[in-house]
Amino acid sequence: MSLVGGPLLVVVGIALVVVTVGAVMGGPRWGPRWVGVVQRTVLVLSAQVVALVMVGLAVNDWGSFYGSWSDLFGGSTGVVTTAAGGHSAWDESHAGGGAPALQPTHWSDAKQYTQKGELGSVELAGRRSGQRARALIYLPPQYFDAADSSARFPVVEVFPGYPGEVQQLVTRLGFPSALLDGIRAHRLRPMILVMLNPSLVLPRDTECTNVPGGPQVVTFLTQDVPADLHANLRVTSGGWGVMGQSTGGYCAAKLAMMAPHQFVTAVSLSGYYNARHDSTTGDLWGGSTKRRDLNDLDWRLAHLPAPAISLLVTIGSLEPGIEGLPGAQQFIGLVRPPMTARLVVVKNGAHNFHDYQSVRGTALAWLSDHLGAAGSQQPAFQAQGRQGDPQPG
After folding, report:
1. From what superkingdom does this record's organism come (predicted)?
2. How much is the pTM?
């Protein structure tokens, strides 16, 4: 039974009712008095445990923090680490010249592609890094325009937080739907969304790092994913964007700063800008202070030339500490030309999906305005008639 969804909640809910009624009624009365005391104690404790499990499952179902039992207990995640030289499962699937054979979802059927676009799933393989990851890819309606079948589209890589699920970028944050609405209203340019989890070896949080002797996550996301998409889709070779929430926000800012030749713009939704080291990450730097510094975005801005990128930083006013509003303000204060940045503070905002959604339109508009043409760092499109942007802090 799946860890997320209604069936498990129903089963646990029934169990909660049963043990709660048993605890209230005292259970069957038989045997010595001490037996009854033990029975009732067990029933009360069981009711409490089941209630906690019920709350945990409900919160996980709402937030999609763990998508499967293997995610929860650290087993197989469906992401495979391979030796370099692997090839994508879709390399041979679009010899006809159209869109590759993405594994279909319920987003749309083939007859609706020219109106809604396509949302499909595919495995991306890393020739340089040896990593693999499954991604959800959204192709806008314009991709299927027969009158302009040679057009190439800029790409935005989109990341959830840790240990979030890629699906929540669709179900909770609604990025494909919001992009489609913006395209139809002529507020947003057509772009391809590549939604994938940057935590390639769950349950470990690699913080989008090339770990010495371990997963080469920066290489996968900045070189392998672009190469795989360029070989299989009509995408521009540069001028891409990258966006993420929380840990995904740190990844987005970090990848743009490290690979400005590929990513000219980025959006960090409640991200942070320091190099994290805790029980979920382990040693990401191989004991090297230099490696740690190079993965600390404040340090990079203070000690290295600023990259020619544009960055949107959003944060809730109630998010505290170095990973909250004070940390975001500190980072913004270090930005200097040719890098540009804007800080948007969500009034009374916190670290949750509701507040990410409140800046979703601003984030997509920023990307639309700042995505470049192939090989360019200049905007190729200016949105029109945008409304409802939160005020910058």
Report:
1. Bacteria
2. 0.75
